[in-house]
Amino acid sequence: MTRFNAFSLLKNALGGHRNWTEQWPDSQPRAEYDVVIVGAGGHGLGAAYYLASQHGITNVAVIDKGWLGGGNTGRNTTIIRSNYLYDESARLYDHAVDLWENLSQELNYNVMYSRRGVLMLAHNVHDVQSFKRHIHANRLNGVDNRWLTVQEAKEYCPPLNISPNARYPVMGAALQERAGTARHDAVAWGYARGAAARGVDIIQNCPVTAIRRNADGSVAGVETAKGFIRAKKVAVSAAGHTSVVMQTAGVRLPLESYPLQALVSEPVKPCFPCVVMSNAVHAYISQSDKGELVIGSGTDQYTSYSQRGGLPLIEHTIAAITEVFPIFNRMRMLRKWGGIVDVTPDRSAILGKTPVPNLYVNCGWGTGGFKATPGAAHVFAWTIAKDEPHPINAPFTLERFRSGRLIDEAAAAAVAH
Amino acid sequence: MLLIHCPYCDETLPEAEFTYAGEAHIARPADPSALSDEEWESYLFIRSNPRGPHHERWRHLHGCGRFFNAVRDTVSDRFLTTYPAGQPRAALPIKEAAE
Fold first, then answer.
1. Fewer CB within 10 Å, N side or C side of chain B?
2. A365-402: per-residue pLDDT in tens?
3. Per-domain residue ranges for chain A?
4. Which secondary-structure segment (H or E) carries A303?
């Protein structure tokens, strides 16, 4: 692995950039691994990286039906924040933000984490009260979040329309300054490169068709398009397709898969300094470093695996954006796409062990999995290595749907819920 | 835009007139107090979430207002059939009717 630094950049620049070596090999599966991870997105690759770097488990394969980072890792709107209401969620997402802050240095790969701040707009008295409650709860949990008046919000985000005559006037905003964005592809690539350098095999374009179990019920390995692969442990991190994969092991999950769409505008010069979310008007927006406005809102209303979604939702999203930012009403939109997100009844993830011995699952991130990538990958690797949950993911069990100990963030998070 | 056939109005109309109402044919328990935790979990939270034909409920909200059942392929989003609520679960496979 070539270490990236100013010297290697200069050396390769002088050589016309013809001598860069590949960042990870295109591996073929071996007959047996200690751990097989299903799904080469940020969460799966990150878990492989932490298994290798922190737990010394390097006989690991990450298998994906497509190319790495081609699912929801490459389809999200790259927003990172941790201003969740409940203690369990705040700990999990803030753990992720802690890791985001140093991720580029850790991976020697620029993930372009940008602490540009996430502003959540309040448009009515209920918003004001519930956001202030969030701010107090966050601060008690050590998560930064503060209240901005209308004028302060306008100063923080000059394109904001604060006219009292707006259809949905802005009455203030909650600001998390440590929140922001990162380059989503680079997260998958950085983890893939770091994991491969430590001996992890990354096997692409190889669908896992079934999880096979031994006579005693424990996991035996996975059936794939390239044959059976024996594994001591199997960890599923397959986002919207988790239900389908886990069903082959006889595990039924409280998940439903919905399309979540996003779109980008034509690229323009820097004009939008932060991330803005509006629950009431129902959309969120930021500007990528390429200059595109990156826009999203909630899921489509029906379950689907189409990775497409319907146009009515795009119209709804754009209507909301132009309501809050009239200056964008003549922007042309360039591309739209959909990813399939797995939603749990309480809108919190399932991250831990399953009823099948040596089978682990990291799913149910719904519309907000990207922000959690390093934190989730880190505690998932811990869970796989030690066969017990890390204190941070201990509450995020599958059993909570039986015991009733839900982590009901449904009404407590961002616009997508 | 999906086009959905309302079995009551007997018209094929745009998605915007309808709301989705989750998986169909999940029967409310006859004797709730007799259910175990596992049965409650299964009734309340576990869903089939198939990749392929899915039995689901829709409501013709901006029309007759009534609930009906449908079978839709979750890969193509094509509706295979719709039928009034109360009718038995449509058997698979369903041959798609000509438009």
1. C
2. 999 999 999 999 999 999 999 999 999 999 999 999 99
3. 6-78+184-254+346-401, 114-179+256-342
4. none
Specify the amino acid at residue A47.
A
**A256, B49: Cβ pair inside 8 Å?**
yes
**Same CATH topology for A6-78+184-254+346-401 and A114-179+256-342?**
no
Q: Are A40 and A62 in contact (CB under 8 A)?
A: yes
Candidate from A304, A308, A310 with C-beta closest to B15: A310
Residue A379: what are its φ and ψ, rounded to 5°?
-75, -25
Nearest to A302 among B20, B41, B47 (CB): B20
d(CA A100, nearest CA chain B) in Å: 33
Domain A6-78+184-254+346-401 classified CATH 3.50.50.60? yes
Are A88 and A395 in contact, with CB atoms under 8 Å apart? yes
| CATH superfamily for domain B3-28+39-98 | Folate-binding superfamily (3.30.2270.10)
- In this prediction the ipTM stands at 0.94
Q: Do A255 and B47 touch (CB under 8 A)?
A: yes
Q: What is the pLDDT of residue B1?
A: 84
Interchain contact A348–B (C-beta under 8 A): no
**Average model confidence (pLDDT) for chain A?**
95
Q: What is the pLDDT of residues A122-167, one digit of tens each?
A: 999 999 999 999 999 999 999 999 999 999 999 999 999 999 998 8
Q: Do A401 and B37 touch (CB under 8 A)?
A: no
Which residues lie closer than 8 Å to A53 by C-beta, 6 or more apart? A194, A198
Q: What fold characterizes domain A114-179+256-342?
A: D-Amino Acid Oxidase; Chain A, domain 2 (3.30.9)
B-chain residues within 8 Å CB-CB of A304? Answer: 74-75, 77
Domain boundaries, chain B: 3-28+39-98
